[in-house]
């Protein structure tokens, strides 16, 4: 993975515009976060191989970054993104890691389903 460069990530998002794509989105301070204090509430969200089509995809911020995917009837949104990878077969992986390198958020887009 590489630190996010908006000049690379924005065109990568644009490649998925107006196409049915597969979405992986997760956020957590739970399963991956053995460091959490027991007194804090564990939260997380997870979707894998959700099929969406978006009419606008935008990366904003100065780091950590935010990505919004505008669909016909709503939005997909991820915040706290720090790193990216342009994977094989045209996949785009965006992830947010904390200062110790622990995963906090991930957003992936692909033309093909993700492995389960």
From TrEMBL:
It holds the Pfam family DUF1806. This is DUF1806 domain-containing protein. It comes from Desulfosporosinus acididurans. The lineage of its organism: Bacteria, Bacillati, Bacillota, Clostridia, Eubacteriales.
